[in-house]
Amino acid sequence: MGDAQDSDWIERIAREDERALGELHARYAQPLYSMVLRIGASEHEAEEIVQDAFLTVWRGAKSFDPARARVFTWLVTIARNKAIDRLRAAGRTGNPASNPTDVNNPIHLAFFRGMTHVEIAQHLGEPVDAVKSQILTALEDLQKRLKGGNP
Amino acid sequence: MISPPVHEQAALFALDALPEEERREFLKKVAGDESLAALVAELRDAAALIACDAPACPLPDGAKTRLMARITAERLRSSSPQNGASARRNPAARTKSTGLAALLPWGLAAGFAIFAGILWGERGSDRAAIESEIATQREVSQGLFARVAELETVLAARDSEVARLRGTPPLLASIVWDATAQQGVLKVRGLPAVPDGSDYQLWLIEPGGDTPVSAGVVPIDPDGSANLPFTTETPLGSNPVFFISIEPKGGSPTPEGEVVFGEM
Q1: Best residue in B2, B9, B16 to probe A by mutation, most A CBs within 10 Å?
Q2: pTM for this structure?
Q3: Cβ density class B14-48: b for 16+ within 10 Å, e for less
């Protein structure tokens, strides 16, 4: 299972194949749900957000180009944006103390808390350039991990 | 060749960590540079892996069913009779779904499918009557969809259960039971007329219990539909079993007549 299977699901979803959407959900809903909870949503909110994300996929599958992006990246982007937008609207984002593992990790602060690199530098008390460098290094490590297999 | 500072910016952009003004400026750079766009795409793929650092949490029970119910409802809402084929596709995939939202759209889709099938086989002189019936069914469906949306809202907020009933003849019946408020509503279509001197009566019983509780006589409209909001005098949990029996006119304190419809 991997990118080819993901692309096949999206092609079938574009043809309104509900079973394909169910299979995509079975594959990715749980990690998305976990991610949204980590961002700070309640269990009820997280289910709604993940559901909305898959509804977005259902509506937008026809315009998705697998050659330009991975399906998993697309799903994560949709669900993360929805979660952060919703929590921001409720004034409930950006509290790194709510998860101790985020406190000193620049990429976690950006990804799960929606913080900019400037905010992260202020939070960590480090120079902005140092934070930029740490983020680039961390993403390059993840690129290597990606080449080793799918999530 | 992408310079180190631009490479760093690309990483921040991919992680959505650039302040708004810098983000807009960077977008302009990406728009005119294919190699930079490719780098951003790669970095975005890498950034998405951070999602996997979240501790694994199991999905709530029924999450997939609720999603598929929304998908089905959305598809049927957007379906016109001219493109009804998309609404009829793959009905088997729905048979495992539970809940009102899953039941109603497929019942309606089946109705449209049957009528569309009839339409193909009928002569022109019969078409007008059939088309009129389709229009009527469509009006009914719109009302039911509105009710589904209303009930979904109730379900999302409360300790509620949705049940459906089965019997002979087949009918479209759903019950929403709100254990928190100790109240529910029965919606049914296709009930045949009862014999003179009798009434349909709705009952609830706790799983494993031996004393059914009456939810009242079911008033039937001339078209065989019924809408019965009900409460019970005896408190019940969140998962009672429902059934309908034929009782003497005005109802019985305990079920004595034939049980004609029961929970699936």
Answers
A1: B16
A2: 0.56
A3: bbbbbeeebeeebeebbeeeeebeebbbbbbbbbb
